[in-house]
Each structure stands twice: as structure tokens, then as C-alpha cells.
Design a protein that fits this description.
491 residues, transmembrane helix, membrane, Phosphodiest/P_Trfase, Alkaline_phosphatase_core_sf
């Protein structure tokens, strides 16, 4: 509209106005008669002629200049819209209508590979997408793309070497102690997770089955009412209802930060891979749980006040018997005993005993794998951990074994051949593989409606949550400027 008005104004400079047309219909004045028909009008004075000629030339010059200016304006306004139009600033955040403070509900659907949201009708998930902000090509997990390292990276904003959970299972080389997913000893869990940060600021946090949330550390005591001990048999509906129950008390007692965890569709993905009807059914069920949650929040009149962030921890890829690499096949070059191996697949982690040159082990393994004589050997590359690609952020911890093997997408590593036959799914691969990506979907007062943002690593989520809550977080590997690139303006 502004451009049209400016164009019309410019055209009035070039087109004679109505009064000028009336003047042309009048009898000619001496000046115009002199220019148009000087043969019929005697020249009375050279001075008069010079004055009239000068005046006429000045008028023509002025009209030409005005025309040039007008055409220049029209040209630049049409070819460079930015010169005359500035996009409106993003809308400010919505004010809370019922809750007395910002509230974030962080939901994890384990193994929800990016793209699963399109496998079937997911009206509730798409309601969040269409009315919120989503990572256009998915959320990037940290390496290794396993459940515990990634959930704890989301919670702390740290890469696994910095938060300590470098695998689902591993051994501390100093103490010889073993870590597993039931271990709640705080010595393993480094960094400061969100529930600890929130509590440190005098706010209330609640957790429902988030890895690491049962660890008593710092100001976080895992209170019985607000911290649920993991029990995979608890129905998903009950989990949702417990979270909704937190909104039934006084507004000032609603936790500022909450977590909610579902094991699906990871559970089905391991059994049948990512392309089975069981995955479709699991995704549909997760969508029903999201719908149950939205409906409950709406009944309580707080849906628009609550920030809901739906994420996964990693993706999933199909695996089958033909995509196997056997370590026993390397014996002509080097023997890798079982007691050297801390994990096989998809992350090969080897810790030889003292006195064995790890560099020699890597050299001999790669020699065998690249010989063309080891079945599928070209799909495995072995590294000294400090020589891994820097983008993996997987070297700065004594807990990480000195030898790491990266296997290609869909391939698995085993110690020796066996007669078992199985096809299923796996994760843990290089986080550069698109199949390892998961989802990021956020809906709430500080997220723009229908916005798509570029993919980002999940270590950014910690700073995002603390920014929404208006609290200062602990040092982490995320960017302090990231929240400003995704949240609505607070002004």
C-alpha cells in the first residue's frame, strides 16, 4: 500500500495537473506565442526575446529534472523494496493469563526419529508445530547417539566428556568401577542439570523419569512428590495425569520446570527397525499422549501459559545380519580379545591393558579393515580418541577408552560369528547421519507461531530453558546467544 501511494505521488510530477490543462486552453500569452509562432509576432526587443527564451529553457530544464527524479524513485522503489519497506519486528511475548510465573514442561519421546511425525496422522503434535516453533530438519543429538548421554546433555547443556555420561555402560579406568543405567551415585553425574539449576534459584522443579533426575546432588534432593523413581511399567496416561495434577494446586506452587519421559518409540525401534507398522502405532500413541496433555492443560485454562518443549534423544536406523563386522576376522593382523572391548556397536570402544601400544592396535586394525579381506571391513574406521573428528566432541575424558571405532550407518560390530539371525534397529552412530536426528517442537508464550528454525545441537536446550525462566544457568557448551535467535522479544 505504501508503494502504491508513493508511485501515485511520483506520477503527479510527470502528468500535467488540472489547473495546467486549463491554462493550455486559454488564449496564448506572449511567451508561448513567441515560441510557437514567432513569424506572426514581431520582435520588439532583443532583451525581451532573451528573457523569454531563458525563462522557457529554465522551465523545460526543471521539468526534465523532475522527470528524472521521479523515474529514479520508481526504479529504485521497485527493484529494491528494502529501501522503502522494513519488515515489522517480531511480536512481543504473550503475557501470562493465569500462571504467576513462567513454566516449562520438557517432554522426551525416546527414539523419536525425525520424520516419524509424518508416518501417520499426528494432529496433536502438528498442533504444536503449526502454532509454535520447530527445528525444520530436526534436532541434532550429541555423539554417541545413545539414550543416557543425550538425555543428560539436554539437561546440562554439556557434551558427554564434560558431564561424565560417555555411554550407557562404561568403566572408570581409575577406580575400575562400572557404570550402568541404574546407577545414581553422584560421582558419575557431572555438571549441573536443569532441575538442580532451577532449585538453586529457589524455584520448584519436578521430574518424571528423566535419566539422571534421581541423582541427589547439590540443592536437588529428589523430593518424593516431585521426583518419580523410574518404573517402566507405569502407563503413559498415568504419567501425563501426574504432571497435570501439578496444575491443580495454587498457581504459585506449580513447578517452574517439569520433565516427562516416554520410552516409545525407541522400544519398538530396537525390535523391528524404523519402518515397521509397530513404529507407526507407537507414534500414534505418543500423539494421543500429547493430546491428553494439551486437553488437560486447556481444561485448567493454562495451555497458553505453559511452554511445552517436545524432543527426542536420538533417531533410529534399520540393521540386519548382512551388515555385520566381526573382530575375529582381524586376527591375521591383530587379535582383539573380548576383555579389551567396552562396547561393540554401534560405538566400538577398546581399552587394551597397560603395556600394549594403542597406536599399534589402531594401525593394525585399520590395515586389516582396509585390506579387502575382511567382510564389510571398509565400513569401519578405527581412531585414537584424540584423532576423532573434532565435531564429535568425544575425547576430553579419561572415561572414554583410548580406541574408538566409527561404523557406517546400519552396520554393527560383533566379536565373532554366530548362527543367530536378527533384524531390528539401532542408534549410537555418528550424529552426522540424518537417521540419528530427532525432533524439537516448542509451543508457548515466547515461541513464534508457525516458525521453522535451522537444525541445532541439543546442548542448546539448557540455555533456552533458563532464558525462558529468567534465571542464570551454570557454565555449559551451548551458546549464550542462542535463546535470542529463537525466542520472541521480551520488549
Amino acid at each position: 500500500m505504501d508503494n502504491e501511494m508513493e508511485s501515485n505521488t511520483s506520477f503527479s510530477i510527470l502528468t500535467p495537473s488540472k489547473p495546467l490543462q486549463q491554462q493550455e486552453q486559454d488564449p496564448p500569452n506572449p511567451s508561448t506565442a513567441l515560441l510557437s509562432d514567432h513569424h506572426h509576432q514581431p520582435i520588439k526587443s532583443p532583451l525581451l526575446f532573451s528573457s523569454l527564451l531563458f525563462t522557457s529553457l529554465l522551465l523545460l530544464t526543471s521539468l526534465s529534472l523532475a522527470s528524472a527524479v521521479a523515474f529514479a524513485f520508481l526504479y529504485f522503489s521497485s527493484s529494491s523494496p528494502s529501501l522503502c519497506y522494513s519488515p515489522p519486528p517480531p511480536p512481543p511475548i504473550k503475557t501470562l493469563s493465569k500462571l504467576s510465573h513462567p513454566t516449562v514442561l520438557l517432554i522426551s519421546s525416546d527414539g523419536f526419529r525425525f520424520g516419524y511425525q509424518h508416518k501417520t496422522q499426528t494432529p496433536n503434535i502438528h498442533r504444536l508445530i503449526n502454532n509454535g516453533t520447530t527445528a525444520d530438519l530436526g534436532l541434532i543429538p550429541v555423539f554417541p547417539t545413545l539414550t543416557f548421554p543425550n538425555h543428560y546433555s539436554i539437561a546440562t547443556g554439556l557434551y558427554p566428556p564434560h558431564h561424565g555420561i560417555i555411554n550407557n555402560y562404561f568403566t572408570d579406568p581409575i577406580t575400575g568401577d562400572n557404570f550402568n543405567m541404574q546407577n545414581h551415585d553422584p560421582k558419575w553425574w557431572l555438571g549441573e542439570p536443569l532441575w538442580e539449576t532451577v532449585t538453586r534459584h529457589g524455584l520448584r522443579a519436578s521430574t518424571f523419569f528423566w535419566p539422571g533426575s534421581e541423582v541427589v546432588k547439590g540443592p536437588w534432593t529428589c523430593p518424593k512428590k516431585y521426583c518419580k523413581q523410574y518404573n517402566g511399567s507405569v502407563p503413559f496416561e498415568d504419567r501425563v495425569d501426574v504432571v497435570l495434577g501439578y496444575f491443580d494446586g495454587p498457581a504459585d506452587e506449580v513447578p517452574s520446570f517439569m520433565t516427562l519421559y516416554f520410552e516409545d518409540p525407541d522400544h519398538q525401534g530396537h525390535q523391528v527397525g524404523p519402518d515397521d507398522p509397530a513404529i507407526t502405532n507407537a507414534v500414534a500413541n505418543i500423539d494421543r499422549m500429547v493430546g491428553r496433555l494439551i486437553g488437560g492443560l486447556e481444561e485448567r485454562g493454562v495451555f497458553e501459559d505453559v511452554t511445552v518443549i517436545l524432543v527426542g534423544d536420538h533417531g533410529m536406523v534399520g540393521t540386519c545380519d548382512k551388515k555385520l563386522i566381526y573382530l575375529e576376522s582381524l586376527e591375521p593382523w591383530i587379535k582383539v580379545p573380548e576383555d579389551w572391548v567396552q562396547s561393540y556397536s554401534p560405538l566400538l570402544a577398546i581399552r587394551p591393558p597397560l603395556g600394549v601400544s594403542v597406536a599399534d592396535v589402531v594401525t593394525k586394525m585399520n590395515e586389516g579393515l582396509g585390506s579387502g579381506k575382511v567382510e564389510n571391513g571398509m565400513y569401519l574406521k578405527v581412531y585414537l580418541k584424540e584423532e576423532l573428528p573434532e565435531r564429535l566432541h568425544y575425547s576430553e575424558s579419561d572415561r572414554i577408552p583410548p580406541i574408538i571405532g566409527l561404523v557406517e550407518e546400519g552396520y554393527k560390530i560383533e566379536q565373532k560369528r554366530s548362527k543367530k539371525k536378527e533384524c531390528g534397529g539401532a542408534h549410537g552412530y555418528d550424529n552426522a547421519f540424518f537417521s540419528m536426528r530427532t525432533i524439537f517442537i516448542a509451543h508457548g508464550p515466547q515461541f513464534e507461531r508457525g516458525r521453522k528454525v535451522p537444525s541445532f545441537e541439543n546442548v542448546q536446550i539448557y540455555n533456552l530453558v533458563t532464558a525462558i525462566l529468567g534465571i542464570k544457568g551454570a557454565p555449559n557448551n551451548g551458546s549464550v546467544s542462542f535463546p535470542g535467535s529463537i525466542l520472541l522479544s521480551t520488549s
